[in-house]
Write a structure and sequence with these properties.
The complex is a heterodimer of chains A (about 110) and B (about 110).
Chain A (H helix, E strand, L loop, with lengths): L3 E3 L3 E4 L5 E3 L1 E3 L5 E8 L3 E8 L6 E2 L6 E7 L2 E6 L8 E8 L7 E2 L3 E5 L1
Parallel strand pairs in A: 2-12
Antiparallel strand pairs in A: 1-4, 3-9, 5-6, 5-10, 6-7, 8-9, 10-11, 10-12
Chain B lengths: L3 E2 L4 E5 L4 E7 L6 E7 L6 E7 L4 E4 L2 E6 L4 E6 L8 E8 L8 E2 L3 E6 L1
Parallel strand pairs in B: 2-11
Antiparallel strand pairs in B: 1-3, 3-8, 4-5, 4-9, 6-7, 7-8, 9-10, 9-11
The chains are: A mainly beta (about 110), B mainly beta (about 110).
Chain lengths: ~110, ~110
């Protein structure tokens, strides 16, 4: 089974802090994604990557950046955390287009 | 602009009965559709999918129906079981946009014993 591991289940950060969310997958998948889930808004795509060192903006990239230095690792960076970035963050990977995503368990981030 | 909509935020069904979850989309370029199930404190898990060249796909108790002219898909669960209680997300992708998934807002299904 493909495993997608997110480094933290729960995080509490202060406004203005730089925050790193880490995601690692163990099945050599090309594609990796970061979503956030908010009540009433579903899952919204922040950034995605189809290859090492490649990144593309999703629907809500403002306030975020990403890094993909190795195929198995995709990091989401909040440059200066704000309270409106309090959310559940979900990382996913996929092997092929339309193959379906495998999600990690999520990181619930609270910014105070 | 919500391209994938799930207009029912919640649904309650008796165990053993049919659950029908609905999803509407606006982007005519979408050509692949998926359903995911999400339990609290877990990531979504893939349930079933359908290509736009089909109008029905079945997998055990789960069937997805696609009506392209109405831009509507539905997920049928028969019979419903208490373990099906979860949030269900529909998602869609288009080859023209690199196959990334656009998700709906989710429907919380509660199956009563």
């Amino acid at each position: 089974d493909v495993k997608v591991t997110q480094s933290s289940r729960y995080l509490v950060k202060r406004t203005g802090e730089k925050v790193f969310l880490e995601c690692v997958q163990d099945m050599d998948h090309e594609n990796m994604f970061w979503y956030r889930q908010d009540p009433g808004l579903g899952l919204r795509l922040i950034y995605f990557s189809y290859d090492v060192k490649m990144k593309e903006k999703g629907d809500i990239p403002e306030g975020y950046s990403v890094s993909r230095e190795k195929k198995e690792r995709f990091s989401l960076i909040l440059e200066s955390a704000s309270t409106n970035q309090t959310s559940m963050y979900l990382c996913a990977s996929s092997l092929l287009p339309n193959y379906g995503y495998t999600f990690g368990s999520g990181t619930r981030l609270t910014v105070v | 602009d919500q391209q994938v909509k799930q207009n029912s935020p919640s649904l309650s069904v008796q165990e053993g009965r049919i659950s029908i979850l609905n999803c509407d989309y606006t982007n005519s370029m979408f050509d692949y559709f998926l359903w995911y199930k999400k339990y609290p404190a877990e990531g979504p898990t893939f349930l079933i999918s359908i290509s736009s060249i089909k109008d029905k796909n079945e997998d055990g108790r789960f069937t997805v129906f696609l009506n392209k002219s109405a831009k509507h898909l539905s997920l049928h669960i028969v019979p419903s079981q208490p373990g099906d209680s979860a949030v269900y997300f529909c998602a869609a992708s288009a080859k023209s946009s690199g196959d990334k998934l656009t998700f709906g807002t989710g429907t919380r299904l509660a199956v009563r014993p």
